Amino acid sequence: MSLPVIPAPTTTTTSDDTCTLSGDSAVVVQSPELAGPAALFVREVRLDSGLTLHPPVIRDRTVDGTVPPDETRAAAVTVLISADGLDGVPSAAGVRADGDAVDERYGLEVTSDGVRVWGPTPEAVHRGLTSLRQLISAHLQDGTAVLPAARIVDGPRFAWRGLSLDVVRTFHPPAEVKRVIDMLALYKLNVLHLHLTDDQGWRVEVPSRPALTQVGAAGAIGDRPGGYYSQEELADLVAYAADRYVTVVPEIDMPGHTSAVFAAYPELAPAELRTIDLGNGNSIPLNALEPGRPETWAFVEDVLDAVVPQFPQSAYVHIGGDEAWGMADEDHAAFVDQAAALVRARGKRVVGWQEIARATLGPDDVAQYWISIDVDAADAGNGPKPPEDLLPILVEHLRKAEGDAPKALAAGARLIASPTTWLYFDRPHGDASADPAQEEARKRLGLEFYGPATLRDGLAWDPVEDTPGVTSTDQLAGVEAAIWCETITGPDDLELMLLPRLPGAAEKAWSQQTATDWPEYAARLAEQSPAWRNRTWTWLQSVEVSWR
Ligand code: TNX
């Protein structure tokens, strides 16, 4: 029997016994460093399901100093540091965004006497408690959770498991970003990649360059409100994420996608500004930061000096590098090389979109593979349909892109798998919604030229098999979904495009089971809806899933 846990655990065995958790149940902490994960677990269970467990007890005293519950009254959840029985679980491939080598493997045992969750590190125990959260939500009825007896041993396939969030095309306020962090945490995703800068806006403070936020943050796409995260707000977001074992990685997109920089500091723009008119009221800028000018590098240094310290957990800085349309190849490569050197000089590692492979990469670098669009289909007009004037530029871009992943690998760099085909959540939903009100939103959301994809389509791939040039898990840093917000106007739109796809991305990033059977997955997915409802998260109520 498979348990309603996403991502699917490495090994699960079940038996006929049950264990009942109720408001009388406590969490018993066997070593003090687990007090944090235990307290977080109790808070999250309450938000997921309404079930209020007793505050955690460190053996015989409560963490917050109040009177301990009578431990004999009800089954308890015991958490402990131990590597018992975890030898058979492979260790994670790839690299973590925080640069650490943290063992996330855990065990979870439900017997008629209670629940035991263990792992060699507090983070491992936290991952195990996350599986337990899902079991509780799926089995809760009338205030008690009757859990099936089971033994799970589990660990991640990949170390880097993330979501790239576009906060430029639509500015998502901090409270909404926290909801997204909550979603990541529930599915054992551990990276939030914030796409902080683009043509339409600049969303992070650089005190030495005040116009970036005073001018560059003013707008978004169309007449959507602008905004930026103050240093205090970012510190709060980064800490909120860290408490949930999520690392926030900043992206400063350059040398292209820099119209907001040029609006703030026109002296950094090329002498002659060029754009392609798309004929539909939109245009695509062909302007980039120029590597040959000293003021470009004074600017990049100022930005890195201000931004890097705002993301203390991240071992990486994402330098963008994508779609520097209109820029000569050698200028792009020269720019990326120097930007990367400035990142390394600040003690951080380099990650960028796959186009950075055209510069000089090394084994510590990470290139994010995204362009899985079929170039011949695009060229023949059979595939995705971009605006007509863009087609020649796009086709040239796609042809060059074919060499990126193999080139990065040949340089010893790792890839993050973010293929547009399966992990771009701004692709329209192909499944109809059971809720007629959602059908209007569904038809409006997502970039048309990608074509729609169903939830089932989203599962039918493998990160190793479907990334060009990759033959072993360790060539990947991990897996990251991306959500771009050209069509997304606010929180409801954002959540409708993230859910229910996000757990599917987590399945690919974490689960050791490489083949995913849709009906089996859909049954597990259906069990997620009670928690989503309790958390007031919006999700596409796909007619292909029998939601609870
Ligand atoms: C390409 S993905 C972009 C973004 C767009 C996205 C739309 C990438 C690195 N660049 O600027 O928002 O397509 O899906």
Q: Architecture of the largest domain, according to CATH?
A: Alpha-Beta Barrel
Strand content: 15-25%
Question: Number of DSSP helices?
Answer: 18
CATH class of the largest domain: Alpha Beta
Distance between the termini: 19 Å
Rounded to an integer, what's the Rg over CA atoms?
Answer: 24 Å
Compute the number of strand runs: 21
Percent helix range: 25-40%
Bound molecules: ligand TNX
Gist of the model:
Helices cover 32% and strands 19% of the residues. It is of the alpha/beta class. Residues 322-323, 353, 370, 424, 426, 447, 484, 486 line the site of ligand TNX.
What keyword list fits this structure?
548 residues; 19% strand; nine-stranded mixed sheet; Chitobiase, domain 2; globular; TIM Barrel; eight-stranded parallel barrel
Plain-language structure description:
By secondary structure, the chain is an alpha/beta fold. It folds into 2 domains: 144 residues, Chitobiase/beta-hexosaminidase domain 2-like (Chitobiase, domain 2, 2-Layer Sandwich); 375 residues, Glycosidases (TIM Barrel, Alpha-Beta Barrel). 32% of the residues lie in helices and 19% in strands. It is built from 18 helices and 21 strands. The strands form 4 sheets. Strands 1, 2, 3, 4, 5, 6, 7, 8 and 9 form a 9-stranded mixed β-sheet that branches. Strand 6 and strand 7 form a beta hairpin. Helix 1 packs parallel to helix 2 and helix 3 runs parallel beside helix 5. The protein is globular and about 75 Å long. The protein starts with 10 loop residues before the first strand and ends in a 14-residue tail after the last helix. The model has no long low-confidence stretch (mean pLDDT 94). Bound molecules: ligand TNX. Ligand TNX binds next to loops.
